[in-house]
């Protein structure tokens, strides 16, 4: 056997080109209308749509990502007098916090 006598086991096969004339007619086997029926259609990945929706401006922060402010129970004891009512609104006012969540920790550091 010579090198020029060797043949491939599976011949090269190109994908069939659809919509180039011939005997398919009308929609050429592409169904009807829409993006998938058009030539050179490329469907955009869903990830790209998510990226496009995110704001590009600098310093933008998601409010849902903010972490809660940790306040120790020892600090609460120094801020509030004994027998006083402790509410989250009052803690915010006395600590000078604008908003967000507050988490009370019982562990001492």
From TrEMBL:
Keywords: Ribonucleoprotein, Ribosomal protein. It comes from Candidatus Nomurabacteria bacterium RIFCSPHIGHO2_02_FULL_42_24. One of its GO terms (cellular component) is ribonucleoprotein complex. This is 50S ribosomal protein L15. Residues 1-44 are annotated as: Disordered. It comes from the Bacteria.
